[in-house]
């Protein structure tokens, strides 16, 4: 993989990183709006770029753009809490 996330100029059919981030963040905002004030456990499974983007929703987008630093490895999980 070239770069921290798939580059649409190299990989055909890959969406623009900003569109991907916006789409995942919109989904997370929807979940937060619906369940953020409740005591609920929510399991979300996804590929590395998606789990990394979910991590960035909680921790902020890294200055180097490397969302994968927040991703979970195969069989691993991360726990986040809405504030």
Low-confidence parts, pLDDT < 50 over ≥5 residues? none
What does the overall shape look like? globular
Strand content: under 5%
Assign a percent range to the helix content: 25-40%
The count of strands amounts to 0
- Cα(first) to Cα(last) distance is 34 Å
Give the integer mean of the pLDDT values. Answer: 88
Structural class of the helix and strand makeup?
mainly alpha
Return Rg in Å.
13 Å
Number of helices: 2
Main beta-sheet annotation? none
Offer a concise description of the structure.
With about 80 residues, this protein is mostly helical. About 35% of the residues lie in helices and about 0% in strands. It has a domain at about 20-30 and about 40-83.
Question: What would you note in describing this structure?
Answer:
With 83 residues, this protein is an all-alpha fold. The protein has a domain at 18-32 and 41-83. It has helices at residues 17-35, 48-59. The mean pLDDT is 88.
């Amino acid at each position: 993989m070239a770069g921290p996330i798939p580059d649409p100029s190299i990989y055909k059919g890959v969406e623009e990183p900003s569109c991907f981030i916006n789409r995942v963040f919109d989904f997370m905002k929807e979940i937060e709006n619906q369940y953020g004030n409740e005591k609920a456990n929510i399991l979300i499974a996804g590929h590395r770029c998606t789990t990394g983007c979910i991590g960035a929703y909680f921790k902020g987008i890294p200055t180097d753009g490397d969302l994968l630093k927040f991703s979970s490895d195969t069989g691993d999980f991360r726990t986040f809490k809405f504030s």
